[in-house]
């Protein structure tokens, strides 16, 4: 009688499953991302919080007190009075000049950029592709590289020192043309425009009554970028405007900086400003851009996501 011997298989110790390893890796990745984002948030948020709190303190408290404790409303009011009393209200004039330059350049930009982008997207003409490539090349040229030739051109026609010497160059905005071109190429149905033409609309009516109402998001986006660029422009107004009476607020900040004894010891006197006042001037110079951004945020989001899908 034969005996059949069977050998029991050895049990291998179970290791961590693939799902467990993937879960651990995902948790470590999320933790790393959270740490990186926290560092970036703190890197940008801490200076902003310090700047806002500095406007509420006196010069002595700013230097010797805790940097992240708020000051008093009285010190904020004193800093406000010192800021707007500087050189008999020069700051008010600087803010008004910035508004004039930014709004003037914005109006010309919209009148020129949106129709130009529409024409490049919807019409076929000779050298169309070459014009688009030239627009992209001009976008890559730094603005400071164009200041000297622009200065020479405006000097020939006698515009140096006038508001137009700042408004006209800042209204040259090829990035707005490119944004409008992308939007009209991808987000406005050509069949809708063709139907308007069949109904008897002229090309101008097709643009103003059909295409332009559909382009509200991109108009808002171009307007915002143009306004921010014009408001924050420093070098062009600094070169074009020889008198401080025409300075925008960004250039005027240099006068405040030169009148701060902490940065310029020889400026101590009746017209000197203190560090909290300089911090308040910085906040005032940024506040209009923040207001415009918050007011137009819905249109900006729609404009930035436009063109993601092709009709």
From TrEMBL:
PROSITE patterns: ABC_TM1 (PS50928)
ABC transmembrane type-1 domain ranges (all copies): 95-296
Secretion signal span: none
Keywords: Cell membrane, Membrane, Transmembrane, Transmembrane helix, Transport
Membrane topology value: Multi-pass membrane protein
Location within or outside the cell: Cell membrane
TM region positions: 31-53, 99-119, 131-152, 164-185, 206-228, 273-294
Keyword tRNA processing part of the UniProt annotation: no
InterPro entries: MetI-like, MetI-like_sf
Stretches for region Disordered: 1-24
Top-rank taxon: Bacteria
Family to which the UniProt record says this protein belongs: Belongs to the binding-protein-dependent transport system permease family.
Protein name: Carbohydrate ABC transporter permease
Lineage per the UniProt record: Bacteria, Bacillati, Actinomycetota, Actinomycetes, Micromonosporales
